[in-house]
Design brief:
This protein is of the alpha/beta class. About 35% of the residues lie in helices and about 15% in strands. It starts with about 55 loop residues before the first helix and ends with a helix. Keywords: Hydrolase, Stress response.
Length: about 400
């Protein structure tokens, strides 16, 4: 089915409270939110618009940017020093793994927990299914990973939950067997649900180009003009910062500084900081060498997991075992949902020590693929064991 272009209405839909959470601060978009009404970020004066660079230092932004962006290892002078550094990193990492054991080594334990339960898979994209690369437009998943994810979706309901726009992540994954949640869960295509369509005014029942019914859920629809305006402004005011890249993910904006000299990170942070002064209904979060601007609503990847579980008809059941695999700070909301509900497990993808609400860990996308292949092989064995083809 074609999940990119559902035929849905595009008029704004009101938002109300549901049992998945209240969408807060959802006031109507107005010109007073626009930076152009203040004249601060016009094309002619963007160079003069940067506020005091002490702002991002004093409020902790710069520290957060550095903390969420560990530097790549640099060659140290002398082989012995380099080896000592690597040995120390491995020792620190394996010590950390005592708290977050390998999902590969713990596979049998995970399967025991999931025994006689329905597994639902939720996967981040960047850093989980594809490696982290300098150019986000080239974060391609391997064909072997695509084949593996297709096999997973054959046996388990599977969704990709990404910070990228839904269309972009679909283009990268290119599998119609999955469900997709873009913009950190603010743009979801899921299975059709009459119940959800009645509960959530932001749910739209539609159909894909093959005529299959789907549900489109966009809890931040009214923010689209605001997000687009912020995107265009940021493109303009960062265009002279070498290596800076601004992406429009439909319901959020990403400002990448992976290829920006660290001496310019403060400037990047200050520009975003100043933009947000004029948009009180937007906020910034820190990712891996990226600042992400998104609506201030009670919605995140954890809420997206809850919504998809509900849309799959798996809510309030004791025989469901959700597994969420992700590598970034934004995935923590999903890990927390699973941990607090004592349902399923979160698996953090990381090759360095990180504090997390996940239970298990995997080192990199290659280990993610191995884990998914183990899961598929186990399921195939179970079906053969019970006489299913």
């Amino acid at each position: 089915m074609d999940l990119k272009s559902p035929h849905v209405r595009t008029d704004p839909v009101p938002v109300n409270k549901s049992r998945l959470g209240r969408h807060s601060n959802m006031l109507a978009y107005s010109q007073q939110d626009s930076p152009h009404s203040h004249g601060k970020y016009s094309r002619s004066n963007s160079k003069k618009s940067i506020g005091s660079l002490d702002d991002v230092r004093s409020n902790g932004w710069l520290d957060a940017m550095k903390a969420s962006s560990p530097p790549r290892k640099k060659l140290l002078k002398g082989l012995s020093a380099q080896v000592a550094s690597i040995d120390y990193d491995f020792e620190d990492y394996f010590s950390w793994m005592l708290e977050y054991p390998s999902a590969l080594d713990s596979f049998e334990k995970i399967i025991d927990l999931a025994k006689d339960k329905k597994i639902a898979m939720f996967l981040d994209y960047d850093g989980t299914l594809s490696p982290i690369v300098d150019d986000p437009d080239r974060a391609f998943m391997s064909e072997s990973m695509r084949t593996t994810v297709r096999s997973v979706a054959k046996y388990f309901p599977t969704a990709i939950i990404s910070g990228r726009s839904r269309d972009k992540v679909f283009d990268l994954v290119n599998l119609t067997e999955l469900y997709y949640a873009g913009s950190h869960g603010m743009d979801i295509i899921g299975p059709v649900s009459d119940t959800l369509s009645k509960i959530h005014p932001n749910c739209v029942k539609s159909s894909d180009q093959q005529g299959k019914e789907i549900t489109l859920f966009q809890p931040a629809r009214e923010f689209l003009p605001m997000i687009d305006e912020v995107f265009r402004t940021l493109v303009e005011i960062t265009k002279d910062i070498e290596g800076a890249k601004v992406e429009n993910h439909k319901f959020c904006v990403s400002v990448h500084y992976r290829n920006v000299e660290e001496s310019n990170w403060t400037t990047i942070g200050q520009l975003v900081h100043d933009i947000l002064k004029n948009y009180p209904r937007l906020r910034s979060t820190h990712g891996r060498k990226v600042l992400e601007i998104r609506p201030v609503i009670d919605w995140n990847k954890g809420k997206a997991v809850e919504f998809l579980i509900e849309s799959l008809g798996l809510t309030d059941r004791n025989d469901v075992f959700p597994i969420y695999i992700g590598d970034d700070k934004t995935d923590e909301d999903a890990f927390k949902v699973l941990r607090e509900s004592n349902q399923g497990c979160g698996i953090l993808v990381s090759s360095v020590r990180k504090e997390s609400s996940a239970i298990y860990s995997l080192r990199d996308p290659n280990e993610v693929m191995k884990f998914l292949q183990l899961l598929v092989n186990w399921k195939r064995h179970q079906e053969r064991k019970h006489g299913k083809k």
